[in-house]
Amino acid sequence: MVEQPGSAGPGPEPEPRRSRLGRILAEHPEARPRVRSAVFSLLATALATIAIVGLFLIWHLRRRARMIRERLAPPRRVSLPDLTAKDEEDHGTVASE
After folding, report:
1. 3-class secondary structure per residue, the chain
2. Whole-structure pTM value
Protein backbone atom coordinates (compact mmCIF):
# COMPACT_ATOMS: atom_id res chain seq x y z
CA MET A 1 0.00 0.00 0.00
CA VAL A 2 1.40 3.38 -1.02
CA GLU A 3 1.26 6.16 1.57
CA GLN A 4 -0.36 9.32 0.24
CA PRO A 5 1.21 12.70 0.91
CA GLY A 6 -0.54 14.62 3.65
CA SER A 7 -1.89 11.51 5.35
CA ALA A 8 -1.30 10.95 9.03
CA GLY A 9 1.94 9.09 9.42
CA PRO A 10 3.72 7.66 12.41
CA GLY A 11 5.39 11.04 13.10
CA PRO A 12 4.12 13.64 15.55
CA GLU A 13 0.97 15.47 14.58
CA PRO A 14 1.38 19.17 13.79
CA GLU A 15 0.00 21.61 16.37
CA PRO A 16 -3.43 22.99 15.51
CA ARG A 17 -3.46 26.49 14.13
CA ARG A 18 -4.08 29.17 16.71
CA SER A 19 -7.12 31.33 16.41
CA ARG A 20 -6.83 35.07 15.93
CA LEU A 21 -7.62 35.64 19.61
CA GLY A 22 -4.99 33.07 20.62
CA ARG A 23 -2.37 34.84 18.52
CA ILE A 24 -3.28 38.26 19.97
CA LEU A 25 -3.10 36.92 23.54
CA ALA A 26 0.25 35.26 22.81
CA GLU A 27 1.64 38.57 21.55
CA HIS A 28 0.03 40.69 24.30
CA PRO A 29 -0.43 38.65 27.52
CA GLU A 30 -1.26 41.83 29.45
CA ALA A 31 -4.57 41.98 27.53
CA ARG A 32 -5.80 38.71 29.08
CA PRO A 33 -7.60 40.33 32.09
CA ARG A 34 -9.34 42.83 29.80
CA VAL A 35 -10.48 40.04 27.48
CA ARG A 36 -11.65 37.96 30.45
CA SER A 37 -13.73 40.84 31.82
CA ALA A 38 -15.16 41.58 28.37
CA VAL A 39 -16.21 37.94 27.90
CA PHE A 40 -17.71 37.87 31.40
CA SER A 41 -19.66 41.07 30.70
CA LEU A 42 -20.94 39.67 27.41
CA LEU A 43 -22.08 36.42 29.04
CA ALA A 44 -23.74 38.30 31.91
CA THR A 45 -25.55 40.55 29.43
CA ALA A 46 -26.75 37.56 27.41
CA LEU A 47 -27.98 35.78 30.54
CA ALA A 48 -29.79 38.89 31.79
CA THR A 49 -31.40 39.37 28.37
CA ILE A 50 -32.65 35.78 28.29
CA ALA A 51 -34.06 36.16 31.82
CA ILE A 52 -35.85 39.41 30.95
CA VAL A 53 -37.33 37.94 27.76
CA GLY A 54 -38.53 34.94 29.80
CA LEU A 55 -40.19 37.21 32.35
CA PHE A 56 -41.88 39.22 29.59
CA LEU A 57 -43.11 35.99 28.01
CA ILE A 58 -44.62 34.76 31.28
CA TRP A 59 -46.20 38.17 31.92
CA HIS A 60 -47.66 38.25 28.40
CA LEU A 61 -49.12 34.75 28.61
CA ARG A 62 -50.72 35.43 32.00
CA ARG A 63 -52.15 38.73 30.76
CA ARG A 64 -53.49 37.11 27.58
CA ALA A 65 -55.10 34.28 29.57
CA ARG A 66 -56.77 36.81 31.91
CA MET A 67 -58.12 38.79 28.94
CA ILE A 68 -59.52 35.62 27.33
CA ARG A 69 -61.15 34.53 30.60
CA GLU A 70 -62.77 37.95 31.02
CA ARG A 71 -64.37 37.70 27.56
CA LEU A 72 -65.85 34.27 28.22
CA ALA A 73 -69.44 33.95 29.37
CA PRO A 74 -69.92 32.87 32.98
CA PRO A 75 -70.04 29.11 33.46
CA ARG A 76 -73.43 27.48 33.02
CA ARG A 77 -75.02 25.38 35.69
CA VAL A 78 -74.88 21.73 34.66
CA SER A 79 -76.41 18.79 36.48
CA LEU A 80 -74.53 15.56 36.02
CA PRO A 81 -76.17 12.16 36.42
CA ASP A 82 -75.33 10.16 39.53
CA LEU A 83 -72.78 7.68 38.22
CA THR A 84 -72.30 5.82 41.50
CA ALA A 85 -75.85 4.40 41.40
CA LYS A 86 -75.40 3.25 37.80
CA ASP A 87 -72.00 1.73 38.64
CA GLU A 88 -73.51 -0.27 41.53
CA GLU A 89 -76.30 -1.52 39.26
CA ASP A 90 -73.77 -2.66 36.65
CA HIS A 91 -71.71 -4.55 39.21
CA GLY A 92 -74.79 -6.04 40.78
CA THR A 93 -75.98 -7.52 37.47
CA VAL A 94 -72.53 -8.92 36.69
CA ALA A 95 -72.27 -10.59 40.11
CA SER A 96 -75.75 -12.23 39.85
CA GLU A 97 -74.88 -14.05 36.64
Report:
1. CCCCCCCCCCCCCCCCCCCHHHHHHHHCHHHHHHHHHHHHHHHHHHHHHHHHHHHHHHHHHHHHHHHHHHHCCCCCCCCCCCHHHHHHHHHHHHHHC
2. 0.53
Q: Which of 33-37, 42-46, 90-94 has the highest mean pLDDT?
A: 42-46
Sort 18 into a burial class: Cβ within 10 Å, 0-12 / 13-18 / 19+. Answer: exposed
Print burial letters for 54-69: b (CB count within 10 Å at least 16), e (below 16). eeeeeeeeeeeeeeee
Report the phi/psi class of residue 8: left, alpha or beta, with left for phi > 0 and alpha for psi in -120 to 50.
beta
Which pLDDT band, with edges at 50, 70 and 90, does 15 fall under?
confident
